[in-house]
Specification:
With 163 residues, the protein is mainly alpha-helical. It has 3 helices and no strands.
Length: 163
């Protein structure tokens, strides 16, 4: 037979677990946009954490000041996209095409960007801390790197280990 105090403790423990479960809310519902045409779309100032844009066409999209932490931009076309002030920390950017994109003040800390096309991208104030880049791409970015990221306080040239 279960004692009254044991029942009370079990009841209280159950309520605590229930309260914890109900109070936990995911910060953003991750969505997949795999292979979709999202040209000229406006995603500015949104929380897009964890979304999957694999192989999407996002040319000329506005993703300025968005939270893109942990997103998958694998093999995504972002030609001429406005990524100013976007936070792409921990994102998968492998094979993405940022051709002529605006990455002013963007944060790419810890992103995986090997094989990513940054030709003619504006990277003033961008933070590339701990980003894995192809050595040739790193050299190309160092040729145009300038500025300091207003959020992290890091100099773009320093985050790229430019000579």
């Amino acid at each position: 037979m279960v004692s009254r105090s044991s029942l009370c403790r079990m009841f209280v423990a159950t309520l605590m677990v229930l309260a914890l479960c109900l109070s936990w809310v995911s910060p953003a519902q991750a969505t997949s946009y795999d292979r979709q045409s999202l040209r000229n779309s406006d995603w500015s100032n949104q929380d897009l954490r964890g979304n999957d844009y694999t192989r999407a066409d996002m040319a000329d999209a506005d993703m300025s000041h968005t939270n893109l932490r942990g997103v998958r931009l694998f093999d995504t076309t972002l030609a001429r996209a406005n990524m100013a002030g976007a936070d792409m920390s921990g994102a998968t950017l492998d094979g993405a095409r940022f051709y002529q994109a605006n990455l002013t003040d963007a944060i790419l800390e810890g992103a995986y960007a090997f094989g990513t096309d940054f030709r003619e991208a504006v990277i003033d104030g961008a933070d590339f801390t701990d980003v894995l880049l192809d050595p040739k791409v790193n050299k190309m970015l160092c040729a145009v790197a300038q500025g300091t990221n207003p959020v992290t306080g890091r100099n773009t040239r320093d985050t790229l280990y430019c000579p």
